[in-house]
Amino acid sequence: MYIPPHFAAPSDAACIELLRTHPLGTLVWQQADALEATPLPWLLRQHAGLQLAGHVARANPLLKALAAGPLPVLVIFQGPQGYISPNWYPSKAETERQVPTWNYSTVHAHGHLRAVDEAGWVRELLDELTRQHEAALPKPWRLEDAAPGFIEQLQRVIVGIELQVERLEGKFKLGQDEQARDQQGSAAMLRQRGAHALADAMQP
């Protein structure tokens, strides 16, 4: 990924926080004659390094690619993003030297992916994913709330996958190359339009 220095993520911690708060990542891998891509929700784990855990359908062709062993892959995570109009920059009225752009933050996780076809591992993953995403709800749903045997039935048609992250690349293109008043002006307009997450991300 091309990353001009002024758009580089401030730290690995900032990249990890984006993974945590925007856990849907697109998994990209090389097939024999083409690239394949699949969006998946990931669980972030930190045990002697950084791991991303998820699951795919047993029929997914990814599993054939993993049959020979760990596979080099890329997972792309997208943070807040949106269109920026030149009309939102106070300097535009003075110079007429502004153009439209798109602000965004993204993180690319590189590493080797392995399949984990173990019922206990997959059950623990499903439990962690569920607890994480249900935690903020007034009455969190649990795996144990499903009909007896239903989760075990579903588990038979999925396989766990785990990525050992070897490198993170983060690009946070959030108006850092603009004057402070233009950053503030565009953030204010984003808030008016309800894009609060992107406006918050643009704050220095």
From TrEMBL:
| InterPro entries (UniProt xref) | Split_barrel_FMN-bd, TR_PAI2-type
Signal peptide residues are: none
Q: What organism, scientifically named, is this protein from?
A: Inhella proteolytica
User: Know the name of this protein?
Assistant: FMN-binding negative transcriptional regulator
Alphabetical list of Gene3D superfamilies matching this protein: Electron Transport, Fmn-binding Protein, Chain A (2.30.110.10)
